[in-house]
Amino acid sequence: MTGQTTSIRAALGGRRPTGMVAFTIIWIGQFVSLVGTGMTRFALTIFAWQLTGEVTALALMGFFAFGPTVLLSPFAGAIVDRASRKLVMMLSDLAAGTMTMLILGLLLADRLEIWHLYVAGAVSGAFESFQFPAYSAAVSTMLPKAQYTRANGMMSLVESASFVISPILAGALIAPLGIGGILTIDIITFAFALLALSLVYVPRPQETEAGRAGKGSLWKEAGYGFRYIVDRPSLLGLLMVFFVINFSGSFGFVLLAPMILARTGNQELILGSVQSMFGIGGVVGGLLLSLWGGPKRRIHGVLLGLALASLLGEGTLGLGRGPAVWAAGAFFISFFIPIINGSSQAIWQAKVAPDVQGRVFSVRRLIAQVTAPVAILLAGPLADRVFEPALTPGGGLAEALGWLVGNEPGSGMALIFIATAALGTAAALAGYLVPIVRNVETLLPDHEMVAVATGGVT
């Protein structure tokens, strides 16, 4: 890879690209990598479902992949602010690629078991805890504030486009290539992402008063993110909305695949088609945000987006009985996600000083998403042992709610979708009732104004 990097850099004039050019190179690398990751996720979901036939097994895969990402976030953020953000991004990608290679080795040796996926997911999740703060903080040093929302829209576009392509490619290639072939493609895409990162220049942030105040031991720096957010009630209040939303939304993250497989008699093509609609909706939403730049008051993009994604997205998935309605629900969820995340990210990037964003964004992720692993753990047992039996003919809820979701396999999971849609909609709209959340953009000054008021950056 070193020789390739040198020759490519020479073609670029001998200098590492900076600014939007550098960001675009990273953006392309991440797109290719995310396509490979999505193909692997699709293939391993099918593998686990066919091996166990239980929602709980899929839920545990999600828990072990996601739990370490959330729990290790404060320490990851402190390390991101200390180290080169570019190096952190590269090491995170390398670790994920290594886990994929280990899974491939076990598969080829015919020794791959479900617990191997749990362990690999946990290790990948631990390193992934570095990716979000590193990428988010890198945007603040690479681009001017006016381009934050557009850049976040571009990243959402990449994630969504991979959702369109990955299930289709995986569904088409899994028969001729097998799971091993899918994993091999994923490894190649990781290498491409590393090459892209190696080409660009990612500046280190200038030190600010906030950065100096947060210096100390790793424990102190990890805790600084908590203190920073607690001292700013508007940011904490905004996080509380996501605290509830991520709890409700995580049920759907676990239940979508088993619900569709149960309702269609394991029709993988239908599952892949519905999952592709997540990508199509996200592509449309990401393109809109990239071209539009988001609402002038970004809090509207967050709160209204969350309410509509819950109501029109999760609610439609729960009420649907066939591919067309499920596809519509998937589209609506992902259409609003770029607007939600891009608007929220722009608020945080404008309000938090760049040299402490690693710490603050990691704690932000912990607070907002700590409920998600709990929901993931609850989803499997609730579906397998409570709601699915209750909605079968003769079950406790079959007569009362069968008219709404049916009495066939998958009906109990559909009812969970409807309940979480109602909870998510209520939480988002409640944000408008709290002034410190509704007025976050006017109550908190931008970090540039704070820097000027305290003597500038060093």
Kindly list the characteristics that best describe this protein.
single chain, 20 helices, 83% helix, mainly alpha
Quickly describe the structure.
With 458 residues, this protein is mainly α.
Structure description:
By secondary structure, the protein is mainly α. It has one domain (11-197, 204-453): Growth Hormone, Chain: A, CATH 1.20.1250.20. Helices cover 83% and strands 0% of the residues. The protein is built from 20 helices and no strands. It has helices spanning 2-11, 19-52, 55-71, 73-82, 85-108, 114-142, 148-199, 209-213, 218-230, 233-264, 268-292, 298-319, 323-351, 357-369, 371-391, 398-405, 411-430, 435-438, 440-443, 447-453. 54% of the residues are buried.
> What is the total number of structural domains?
1
The CATH topology label is: Growth Hormone, Chain: A
**What is the count of helical runs?**
20
How far from one another are the termini? 36 Å
Largest sheet properties? none
CATH class: Mainly Alpha
Overall geometric form: globular
Whole-angstrom Rg: 22 Å
Fold topology:
Layout (H helix, E strand, L loop, with lengths): L1 H10 L7 H34 L2 H17 L1 H10 L2 H24 L5 H29 L5 H52 L9 H5 L4 H13 L2 H32 L3 H25 L5 H22 L3 H29 L5 H13 L1 H21 L6 H8 L5 H20 L4 H4 L1 H4 L3 H7 L5
Helix pairs in contact: 2-6, 2-7, 3-6, 3-10, 3-15, 4-6, 4-9, 4-14, 5-6, 5-7, 6-14, 7-11, 7-13, 9-14, 10-12, 10-14, 10-15, 10-17, 11-13, 12-13, 12-17, 15-17
